[in-house]
TrEMBL record:
Keyword Disulfide bond attributed: no
Family matches, as InterPro entries: Adenine_glyco (IPR005019), DNA_glycosylase (IPR011257)
A GO molecular function held by the record: DNA-3-methyladenine glycosylase activity
Alphabetical list of SUPFAM superfamilies matching this protein: DNA-glycosylase
GO biological process: base-excision repair
Keyword Nuclease: no
This protein's name: Uncharacterized protein
Length: 179
């Protein structure tokens, strides 16, 4: 599904997504139309417009998002999957700011799933071998997002935001693997 999303949403380039016209995007033969409802497609295009404003103001989506965490990832060290939250106060703050800026479909559960997916929240269990490996990688670059901070990787963050918005909240939370 990710490859299909990448193709339909032009490699998750918010500039290109924001320029999609209704005829191409919402037409009866549109591959996007077979993937998502008209409401969600409109939300994605409108959100792309708002993401461009954020990028203009902050220099990148990366800079904007990491600012909510003081450029340090959250590390949970949970003992069981039941302890891993579906939302956090920082996800709620980011969600509220995104909504204030006009984005839709970015509730705190969706935003927290996004934060987990892009490495802003390290919720590997305390028993997982990846926990320390990810924490060490984050520490080596000052904690600012591991491999996702490079400008050429911004599409990954925009893509994850698009994919999280296109899912129901419960599905967005379930798409994150905690193994």
């Amino acid at each position: 599904m990710h490859a299909f999303h990448r193709e339909v949403f032009m490699d998750f380039d918010p500039l290109l997504v924001s320029k999609l016209n209704e005829k191409k995007f919402l037409g009866p033969c549109s591959p996007a139309r077979s993937l998502l409802s008209e409401h969600r497609l409109r939300t994605i295009v409108e959100n792309a417009h708002e993401l461009l404003k954020i990028i203009e103001e902050f220099g990148s989506l990366d800079e904007y998002c990491w600012g909510f965490l003081n450029y340090k990832p959250m590390v949970g060290r949970y003992r069981s999957p039941r302890e891993v939250p579906l939302r956090t106060p920082k996800a709620e703050a980011l969600s509220q700011d995104l909504m204030r800026r006009g984005l839709r479909g970015v509730g705190p559960t969706v935003v927290y799933a996004f934060m987990q997916a892009v490495g802003m929240a390290n919720d590997h269990l305390a028993t997982c071998y990846r926990l320390d490996e990810c924490a060490a990688a984050e520490a080596s670059d000052g904690g600012h997002g591991g491999t996702l901070v490079k400008e050429q990787e911004m599409g990954k963050m925009c893509g994850m935001m698009i994919e999280c918005v296109s899912l129901e909240s419960s599905m967005a939370a379930a798409m994150i693997s905690i193994s």
